[in-house]
Amino acid sequence: MGSALENFVNQVRTMSASGSFRELADDLPESVSLLARNWSILDNVLETLDVQQHTLGVLYVLLAKLHSAATANPEPVQIIQLMRDFVHRNNVEQLRFAICAFYETCHLFTDYLVQKNLSILGIKIMARAVDQIRQIDSQLTPIHADLCLLSLKAKNFNLVLTYLDGDITDISTAAAECKTQQQQQSQHTDANNDAKYFLLFYYYGGMIYTAVKDYDRALYFFECASQPRPMAMSHIMLEAYKKFLMVSLIVEGNIAFIPKNTQVIGRFMKPMASHYHDLVNVYANSSSEELRILILKYSEAFTRDSNMGLAKQATTSLYKRNIKRLTKTFLTLSLSDVASRVQLSGAAEAERYILNMIKSGEIYASINQKDGMVLFKDDPEKYNSPDMFLNVQTNITQVLDLVKQINKMEEEIILNPMYVKKALGSQDDDLTSQHPKTYSGDPTD
């Protein structure tokens, strides 16, 4: 082991023993390039360090290994085992002193697994990392997006759904707090991109909910990912907006609410998503045939955006909406008439749609197989059963809990010193505007 690496090890061991974790965390970023240059003997360095006692030192060795993975081409099994051991054995209190380095390590580890087509092996590791670093269960961290990406690539959603189903009430600001340190240390260029990973969490989450056909939840996630601050836009937002339009048609039958004060959507997103707005306009005409022709016309664009599946689901939803309209007009109708009015290929396809809709509770009807007639019925629910009462009670409890959470968040905002300072500043500006000063001469002087 070279003298420079020996100095690194001695520094880690000495400062860790004395409890100087803050100072150690400030010094270690300068060692990343040194460690990366000596990637071939980093295993020897790890043998001299204990994960529990020297968490910061081991973290930066891992970071250097992942930075040099492209050139060093390490065995994936070794990298995965090192990361698994680290997230299970590290000292969290030490880890919080270098949270940006930890986030970057997780991002690089995720990218490495995706490149090696080993995403499924990283899901539990990343879930452990999320559990370890978040301070409350409803807190969103930058590495939530990594967990979603691994799950999406592996097409394994059981674990990640437990993280997506919960409401987010807090966003980790730890990475933002070390922004100044990050800017000073040029080795770290990606770990502090909080906005990017916030958007990716909702974008990937929307894709996961789409995959499991929970379109209501997918719509919410795509809406969060496509709502930019004024005069700001990213590729993530644009792709989320395209999917938002598609899922809106599936769920609502039209475009869900978009804040009118969002200038970016009107100025940039709409022109760049013109094919999707054409689809929305044709959908509004309720003509399944016109919609099918338009999807065929723009099939290349939809396929390129990986949205052809959503386009087909939108077509299916229009067939279903048109069938629902028939239930409001007719009591009985033949299957062939249904197929003709909804523009399906024939009675067999109409029967398949109706049976699926009956099974899912979207309509209430029965089919007489002898004469091929459909009898549309009213909703049998009388809303007086014990199950319905329990359902209403559960919904009321959820609403009350939500009100408590909103009141708590409002109180925290009102008592926040930064908010108080800004609010008082606004009041001073209002008072000044009420008593304007008078000037003489040219106001530009």
From TrEMBL:
InterPro entries associated with the record: COP9_N (IPR055089), CSN3 (IPR050756), PCI_dom (IPR000717), WH_DNA-bd_sf (IPR036390)
Keyword list, A-Z: Cytoplasm, Nucleus, Signalosome
Assigned GO CC terms: COP9 signalosome; cytoplasm
PROSITE patterns named among the record's database cross-references: PCI
Localization in the cell: Cytoplasm; Nucleus
UniProt feature, compositional bias: Polar residues: 433-445
SMART domains: PINT
A GO biological-process term: ubiquitin-dependent protein catabolic process
Source species, domain of life: Eukaryota
Gene3D superfamilies: 1.25.40.570
Residue numbers spanned by region Disordered: 426-445
Keyword check for Transmembrane: no
PCI domain location: 213-381
PANTHER family: 26S PROTEASOME NON-ATPASE REGULATORY SUBUNIT 3/COP9 SIGNALOSOME COMPLEX SUBUNIT 3 (PTHR10758), COP9 SIGNALOSOME COMPLEX SUBUNIT 3 (PTHR10758:SF1)
Assigned protein family: Belongs to the CSN3 family.
Record's protein name: COP9 signalosome complex subunit 3
Gene source species: Drosophila persimilis
Gene that specifies this protein: Dper\GL26312
